[in-house]
Each structure stands twice: as structure tokens, then as C-alpha cells.
Specification:
The complex is a heterodimer of chains A (378) and B (565). With 378 residues, chain A is of the alpha/beta class. In chain A, 38% of the residues lie in helices and 9% in strands. Chain A has 18 helices and nine strands. The longest helix of chain A has 19 residues. The termini of chain A are far apart. The C terminus of chain A is likely disordered. Chain B contains 17 helices and 15 strands. A three-stranded antiparallel β-sheet of chain B has the order 1-2-3. In chain B, β13 and β14 form a beta hairpin. The longest helix of chain B is centred in the middle third of the chain and has 32 residues. The chains are: A alpha/beta (378), B alpha+beta (565). Chains A and B meet through α3, α4, β2, α5 and β5 of A and α1, α4, α7, α8 and α9 of B.
Chain lengths: 378, 565
């Protein structure tokens, strides 16, 4: 029950749900789940191995029936593929599909094959027959680093490769184990996926910026910045904004839940956030040590979302100015204001496909001058 | 003659396909194919070299840390940065924690099910199993805990939903362990899961998170060290590190090592099969000081044809990569040094869905690295044999007693079990060495040396217009190298030659088989429909295919000098 109480807290639910969670986790028939992996590094699988609530052995032996997961399953070759096929037949429309890794779309998807079948082919069949699809990690979310400029294999995320699914994204590079398990528990308990933002990321984990929950925020607000790694401010735990921290434009719950059972997280150890839960972060947030433009500080009220909006536009322009070799620019999505209950309308999904940016250096400048106007008002 | 394809090879990292020819119950030929490609080198072109490690680390999340380390070393080499001792020690501790977690999880989560039949565990007597445990370990599992494990397995089987054990090779004739041994190893499989997430927290303390720790910097580390500051590595952090090292040593000595010996002795035939041609290589790593291999935990060297009487020196200019049987084009020549020419991905395999590859032509996304034209095996067996051949007491004192018990010489190590044993040997070595690095860190802090980075060339305006360098690391799976070419402050070329590429690569222009392919030929197969024997040997290499098939281009200039890390 301690796990259940903890999970109730993680999902920010009222206490009365604790019993429901306990029951769901002991329900007699185990929900079947298949885990697909394509162009991946397996970091998401490894991160799941760090799960403690429930633990990975609990998940796999008691909570779920993980009928297919290449990195961990006993069977290989034909027998492994048969397990996947059998699950799709026996539990059509009932199993959960989890996807790790990007899907290559160039050249018929020959850049990732399993059992002689291409990744796009497998993903389409398996996800379309699933009750729900959970993507884990940056690669399955938007294509990950394989999709970073110039995207040699045409890598995309699952939502783009197989549109129209009942799908949720749990990004992060890799995702925090806590966020993966909490999403599964939410689904098992309530029979539906949690409320999400416009990127289909669960709000309980991606509803707030790092900046707004960072333990070093007081240093930011007071103007105490690390000027160089290793300096006195660094040893005093001062704000890493000037070292390139992308916390202000990153939605993720790292400061709240931390990593590896609350041990630490990048800013806590002394290195800035790289924005790993954000779409196209490998291009949008790099160079990682280049600092974000000045963020309006304490007392100036743009909402976090508004700040994210402005920063996103400037980052987009700044990215263009940086001039990464390929010349492909990513249109950075301007976020809508969330509605009062914190969710966004499911009809408001927009295309996450990278586009030739229409932003010119001029628009970057005007965004920057808008920024300094806000600062003057501070 | 039957041709069989095993795809996916499961319980590995990434995507591997093995095709074999079987005749009269024996493997007569074998082909190893990586079926996934991403293109890290292309993605890195044009980017800030200080960012490279963040990207490169994502070549692999099972081998997390290793590419970050090789990357920062390469950039530091190019820019002439010299990291301070504290940064080196923290890097060693992070890498050491990686070894311990990686090797143990490999044995239980990835390899064990080739030797362990979970269904047989249901027939075990938990009391007898506990007695067996007490006979091999000073910290035996209790009868009641083993009974608990048995109940869990029984519930799983009774539910009819077998989860990860769906379609497993239950009752396969190649399984040899007693029901009690099966139960014991299965219990430890579960214990390992609990243990690994706890001890890896050491990496999160030093690196911010695991997987993909984030405290590296070109020039040092981003974790401050200061006994008198809250947000730095202080005595609390050091105490926790020591505690975790203690837990690592405990599990490795009293659970992993005894289990490994139990499995090895139960499968004596597997000292006969699974060897490669006997060429082994190590770049050397884990010295207590940076920029030297003096007193390195893993010495450098090259062994040829299994001859342990001679350990050759490594000359990295003799490394080449071939693409004869790989889905890449070279503009000229078959065999090129990593910095010559240009490679483009060019898939010429069968259109999916396909049944078999065309193994007479190109058949893999891996190139064939060669040392002076030889295919070489890298990884734990290579490291242990090189140290053994050099008479390194830290290895001989662990290996000789085992050989004594077996009544055999070191020649039995050229095998599947030998390789598996070597992995456990070096895990013990690593666990024994880590406290030394913690001690050295403490000594530096006591002397008020709190330096964690060389800040002399952080700003790109301090860099030469052109610079090149490389970084080596002996990663858990073997010899890893990253090469970088920097021009006008940006990455002009990036190249990685990765352990699993050495081991899993296809035939070369001469038709020489790669190590995986060599290791399979001559192995008996009881049931071609359930080729657990293939898995036993392939898993003994601990394949990482995301690592192996990372890269496409090879372009740049020759490195003039061999530099030490």
C-alpha cells in the first residue's frame, strides 16, 4: 500500500484513489503489453529497469503480461515473433503497445528491420491493433537524435509514422522511470490515458517547466549565477542559466521527482538542463552551453507558457542564426495557453513535422526587443 | 544442410540477426548481421565539439557513459586540455559503476535464461536449494525466500500468461541444471533486479542521473567537489559512494561469482565451443592517474592466434575498416584507415519482408574493423587474457584457482564459458579497485585540491583553426575509440570504432569471418527450431548493436601520434 500511496501522490490524485490503484494492480487478469523497439539506444528500457514503484519484477511478473520485449524476453527468433503475433490475435484491441526508438521512413524503412520486416510495417500493424500506444523517449516521441539535422534515415516519431492512434508520449532522453510507471498505473487504474498537453505528454509530468520548480530558482531571481563551471558560485549551487541551462523552456518534472529514486538530477549535480523532453531538442536546444536569451524574472508576469512561447520563437531564430550545416530549420511550435483545467483540447494537435522555417533573423530580433521591453517593465 | 535465421536475437542491446547453416546437428557456417542504422557521424557534423559527448552518449543507453567518456577524451585530446586528477577519479568511479551494473545485469537478465529453465525451478525443493546455496556462497539465500520465488513463478505459470517467458524453450534438452540450481539462479535473477537499481544510484549521485549521466564536460566534470559546501561532493556523498561500493562488492563476491562458477561447472562442454580465432585486443584503461596507463587496471595489448606467450603493443595506425560485406560504399579501395575516404550508406539487401539475407554480397550495417588485417575479439575475455599473459597478479589470483578446480590450463578460456567467466573476473577486479579511487579523491580533497576541470580552452576563440584528436576507453564490451576533426570551431568529422563492431562485423574482403561468425562454427545444435546454443555463445559476447552500427562516414586526416588517455 505504501507504493500505492506514493503513486497516488506522484499522479497528484486525491487519497481516495489509493484503494483503486491497489485493486487494479492485483486484478486477476493481467493486461497484455508488447514493447517494440526500432532505432533506439535502449536507454528507455534501461531506465524502466530502475523502476521502483512498481518495481520492474513486479510489473513484469504480477502487474502486466509483457508478452514481447526484445531486450528481456526468453524466446528469440521465430518464437519471439510468434509471441507478438499471438498477442495481437488473442488480444486484438486490448493490449498496450509501448514503442521505444524512432521509425525510419526513407527507402521503405530499411534502416531498421526486425525478423526481416521493416519498422514502419511493424509499427503500423502492432499499434493499429492496440488499445493504446505509449511512446517512451525522445526517439519515439519526435524522432530523437536520429532525426536531428540532417536526419539521414528520415527518422520520425510514432505519432507521425502511424497517425490517428490512441497515443501518449512520455518523452525524456531517456524518460524517468517514475513517469513511465505512473502512466501505466494511471491507465490500469482509470482505464484511460492521463490528460495531456498539445504534444500528447501527460500533464502530471510535463505540465510545468523545470524553471518553475527548480530548487535553484531563488538564485536565479536574486541574480546569483555560475559564471564558469568550477567557480565559487558553482560550488555554492547557484543558478546555471548562464551555463546554458534550458530549464526555462523545458516542461519536465525532474526537480520534483528527481532521478533514480530521488537521488539527483542534472542541475542538482551541477550541469544545466538540455531540454530532453522537448520536441526536436537536439536541434532546438543546442548548442547546449549557449544560454537562453534573458528570461523575465521575478515580478514580471508572463505566465510560464508565455515565456516558453517567446523563448521558443527566439530559440528558433537563434538556431537559424547559428547555422547548422544542413540548413534545415525547425519551426518551433508556439504553445497555446492551456485552458483552466490545465488540459488542451484534443482537437488542437498540430503537426510536429520539421519545416523550413519562415523565421528570419529579423523576426528573432523583434522577439528579442519584445523581451527587453518586458524586462524594462520589471 | 539447413539454413536458419534467428531474428531477432533477443536479450541483447539493439538489432542483430544471425543466419547459420546446420548439417548433421552442427553449425557449419554463420553470418552476423546488424539490421539497424542511425548515422551519428552525420548528425554530429557541424556541431559544437563541446556538445559532442551529449549526442554521442546516446549511441547506447545500455552502455551509457562509455561514449560520453570516449567523446570528451577525443575533444580534450584535440584541444590539448588536461583534466585534473579529481575529474579523472570521478570519471573512473562513474565508469566503474557502469561496469559492475552492466556485467551483473548481463549475466542474469540477458544471459542466464540460456542456461536456466524456469519451468524446472517449479520441481525444486527449496530446502535443498538453500543447502546448495550455502555450499557455494557465504551469503546463501534462505529456504523461505526461495520458496517465495517458487510461489511467484508458480503463480505466473498458473495464470496462463507467461509474460517474458512466453514461448521460452522450456524443457529443451540442452538445459543441464538441477531443479534446485534453476530455482537458485532464478531467485538471484530477481535479486539482481533489485540490487542493480540501488547501486547504480552511485552514478546518479556523480552524474545527475542514470541512464545518460550529465555531469561530463570537455575539460573535466561539472560536479563541484568541496567538503564544506552543500551543493558539492562532500563527506555525505563520499559516505554514500562507499556504501554503494560495499553493496557492489557484496553482491559480486557472494552472489554473482558463485552463481557463475555453478553455471560454468554445470556446462563443461561449453568450454569446448564458442571460441574465436584467438586474436584479442585491449587499448588499456582505468589507471589511477590520467594520461598514463601505468598501473592501469586493464593493461593494453594484442594477442594473436591464442599465443599467450606474446603480448604485442598496440599501434592504432594499423586499424582499418572494410565494407566488402556491409551496406556502405567506399569511393576507393576495400580497406581503409578510419580517416580516409568517405562512406555512404547504401542498402543493397533484400526488400522487407524477407526470409534470408544475400550473404554472398553485402549483409550488414556493420563494417569489418581489422587490426593489421586480422579480425580481433575485444571485451572481457581479451582484457583478462592480456592481463593474464602479462602475469598481472590481480587477474592470476582469481583465474588460477578456477583453472585448478577445472584441472585445465588457460586454453579453456577461449570459449563461451571462458568469455562468460572473464566477465565475472573483471567485475571482481573492478569492485576491488573502486575504493582506491575514492581514497585518492578523499586525499586530494584533504589537500584542498578541489579542481574539477581544465578551463583553459573552453571558449572556441582559444582553439586553433584546425585540431584533431582521439579518445580511447575500454568499455564493458571492449575497445572503444572516438576520433574527431575540428575546423573553425565546429566538428568537421567524427568517427567511432566500437567494441561490438569489432566483434559482430561481417566477413572482410579476404572472406575472413568476424568473431561472432567464427565462434558459432563447429557448435552442435540439438534442435534447429530452438537454437538456444546460438544464443549461449552470442550472448557470451554481450552484444550491443546500437553501439556497433552507429556510424556511416569515415573521413578525416591521419592522427600523427599515439596519445595516451
Amino acid at each position: 500500500m505504501k507504493f500505492c500511496a506514493g503513486m497516488t501522490a506522484a499522479l497528484a490524485l486525491p487519497g481516495r484513489y489509493t484503494d483503486r490503484i491497489a485493486h487494479a494492480l492485483q486484478a486477476p487478469q493481467k493486461p497484455p503489453l508488447v514493447w517494440l523497439d526500432f532505432q533506439e539506444c535502449a536507454g528507455c528500457s534501461e531506465s524502466l529497469l530502475r523502476a521502483s514503484s512498481p518495481s520492474i519484477d513486479n510489473l513484469v511478473l504480477e502487474t502486466l503480461s509483457v508478452n514481447y520485449m526484445s531486450i528481456a524476453m526468453a524466446a528469440a527468433g521465430h518464437q519471439a515473433e510468434a509471441a507478438l503475433q499471438q498477442t495481437m490475435e488473442d488480444y486484438q484491441g486490448q493490449y498496450i503497445a509501448v514503442v521505444e526508438g524512432s521509425i525510419p521512413t526513407n527507402d521503405g524503412g530499411v534502416y531498421a528491420t526486425v525478423g526481416g520486416r521493416s519498422a514502419p510495417d511493424i509499427a503500423t500493424e502492432v499499434c493499429r491493433n492496440a488499445a493504446a500506444t505509449i511512446t517512451v523517449g525522445a526517439c519515439a516521441f519526435f524522432g530523437g537524435w536520429p532525426s536531428a539535422a540532417p536526419n539521414p534515415t528520415g527518422a520520425v516519431g510514432v505519432d507521425e509514422a502511424v497517425p490517428g492512434l490512441n497515443l501518449i508520449n512520455i518523452p525524456g532522453c531517456p524518460p524517468n522511470a517514475v513517469n513511465m510507471t505512473a502512466t501505466v498505473v494511471h491507465y490500469l487504474t482509470f482505464g484511460e490515458l492521463p490528460a495531456t498537453d498539445r504534444h500528447k505528454r501527460p500533464l502530471f509530468a510535463f505540465g510545468q517547466t523545470i524553471h518553475d520548480s527548480c530548487e535553484r530558482r531563488a538564485h536565479y531571481d536574486a541574480g546569483r549565477f555560475v559564471q564558469e563551471y568550477g567557480d565559487e558560485g558553482h560550488r555554492k549551487g547557484w543558478c546555471l542559466y548562464k551555463m546554458g541551462c534550458k530549464g526555462p523552456s523545458t516542461y519536465h518534472n525532474c526537480p520534483a521527482v528527481r532521478w533514480n529514486e530521488g537521488t539527483s538530477w542534472p542541475v542538482m549535480v551541477g550541469h544545466g538542463c538540455i531540454g530532453c523532453s522537448e520536441p526536436h531538442f537536439w536541434d532546438a536546444m543546442s548548442p547546449f552551453y549557449r544560454r537562453l536569451p534573458d528570461v523575465p524574472g521575478f515580478g514580471v508576469q508572463a505566465t510560464a507558457d508565455g515565456i516558453g512561447l517567446t523563448i521558443a520563437a527566439v530559440v528558433g531564430g537563434g538556431f537559424a542564426a547559428h547555422g547548422v550545416a544542413s540548413g534545415v530549420r525547425y519551426g518551433i511550435k508556439k504553445r497555446r495557453q492551456p485552458s483552466d483545467d490545465g488540459s488542451t483540447s484534443p482537437t488542437a494537435q498540430t503537426d510536429e513535422r520539421p519545416t523550413e522555417s519562415t523565421e528570419s533573423p529579423e523576426s528573432a530580433e523583434s522577439a528579442e526587443s519584445a523581451e527587453s521591453e518586458e524586462e524594462d517593465r520589471a | 544442410m539447413t539454413r536458419i535465421a534467428v531474428d531477432p536475437i533477443t536479450r541483447i542491446e539493439g538489432h542483430l540477426r544471425i543466419e547459420i547453416e546446420v548439417e548433421d546437428g552442427q553449425i557449419t557456417d554463420a553470418w552476423s548481421s546488424a539490421t539497424q542504422f542511425r548515422g551519428m557521424e552525420i548528425v554530429l557534423k557541424g556541431r559544437d565539439p563541446r556538445d559532442a559527448w551529449l549526442f554521442a552518449q546516446r549511441i547506447c543507453g545500455v552502455c551509457t557513459t562509455v561514449h560520453a567518456l570516449a567523446s570528451v577524451r577525443a575533444v580534450e585530446d584535440a584541444l590539448g586540455l588536461r583534466i585534473p586528477p579529481n575529474a579523472h577519479l570521478i570519471r573512473n568511479l562513474i565508469a566503474g559503476a557502469q561496469y559492475i551494473q552492466d556485467h551483473v545485469v548481463h549475466f542474469y537478465q540477458l544471459h542466464a535464461l540460456d542456461w536456466v529453465d524456469p519451468s524446472a525451478a517449479l520441481q525444486a525443493d527449496p530446502n535443498k536449494a538453500s543447502q546448495l546455496a550455502a555450499s557455494i556462497s557465504e551469503q546463501p539465500s534462505s529456504a523461505s525466500s526461495l520458496k517465495g520465488v517458487q510461489s511467484r513463478v508458480k503463480s505466473l505459470v498458473d495464470s496462463g500468461q507467461l509474460s517474458l517467458f512466453t514461448n521460452a524453450y522450456f524443457g529443451h534438452p540442452a538445459y543441464e541444471l538441477s531443479p534446485e540450481a534453476n530455482l537458485l539462479l532464478l531467485a538471484h535473477y530477481l535479486d539482481a533486479l533489485t540490487w542493480q537499481r540501488e547501486i547504480i544510484r552511485m552514478q546518479a549521485l556523480l552524474g545527475g542521473k542514470n541512464p545518460h549521466p550529465q555531469s561530463y564536460l570537455v575539460g573535466g566534470m561539472a560536479m563541484p567537489v568541496d567538503p564544506n559546501r552543500q551543493d558539492a561532493l562532500n563527506a555525505d556523498g563520499l559516505a554514500r559512494i562507499r556504501q554503494w561500493i560495499g553493496q557492489m562488492q557484496d553482491f559480486v563476491e557472494h552472489t554473482y561469482w558463485p552463481d557463475l562458477l555453478l553455471a560454468g561447472k554445470s556446462y563443461p562442454d561449453w568450454f569446448k565451443w564458442g571460441g574465436t580465432r584467438g586474436n584479442y585486443m585491449s587499448y588499456g584503461d582505468f589507471a589511477p592517474q590520467p594520461y598514463t596507463l601505468e598501473d592501469a587496471l586493464f593493461p593494453a595489448g594484442l594477442i594473436l592466434d591464442g599465443d599467450l606467450s606474446q603480448v604485442h603493443e598496440i599501434d592504432q595506425s594499423k586499424i582499418t575498416e572494410e565494407v566488402t560485406h556491409a551496406w556502405y560504399d567506399y569511393s576507393g579501395g576495400d580497406r581503409l584507415h578510419p580517416w580516409e575516404g568517405e562512406t555512404r550508406p547504401n542498402y543493397t539487401g533484400p526488400e522487407p519482408p524477407y526470409d534470408f539475407l544475400n550473404t554472398d554480397a553485402e549483409y550488414s550495417w556493420l563494417k569489418s574493423p581489422r587490426y593489421e588485417g586480422h579480425p580481433v575479439e575485444v571485451g572481457p575475455l581479451a582484457r583478462v587474457l592480456i592481463a593474464y599473459a602479462k602475469g598481472d597478479e590481480r587477474v592470476t589470483r582469481i583465474v588460477d584457482p578456477v583453472l585448478g578446480e577445472l584441472g585445465a590450463g588457460p586454453e579453456v578460456l577461449h570459449s563461451t564459458i571462458g568469455r562468460t567467466l572473464a566477465r565475472a573476473v573483471e567485475t571482481r577486479q573492478m569492485a576491488n579497485e573502486m575504493p582506491r579511487w575514492a581514497d585518492m579523491l578523499v586525499a586530494n580533497m584533504s589537500n584542498n585540491d578541489l579542481r574539477i576541470r581544465d578551463d583553459s580552452r573552453w571558449d572556441p576563440s582559444t582553439w586553433p583553426r584546425q585540431a584533431q584528436g582521439y579518445g580511447f576507453h575500454e568499455a564493458p564490451r571492449g575497445s572503444l575509440g572516438h576520433w574527431i576533426n575540428i575546423e573553425d570551431g565546429a566538428i568537421a568529422n567524427y568517427q567511432a570504432v566500437v567494441p561490438s563492431t569489432w566483434n559482430a562485423g561481417p566477413r572482410d574482403a579476404q572472406g575472413q569471418l568476424g568473431p561472432y561468425e567464427q565462434s558459432l562454427v563447429g557448435t552442435p545444435i540439438a534442435d534447429p527450431e530452438k537454437p538456444v546454443e546460438v544464443l549461449r555463445t552470442i550472448h557470451s559476447f554481450d552484444p550491443c548493436l546500437a553501439c556497433a552500427a552507429h556510424v556511416v562516414d569515415a573521413q578525416g586526416r591521419e592522427i600523427a601520434q599515439v596519445k595516451v588517455m
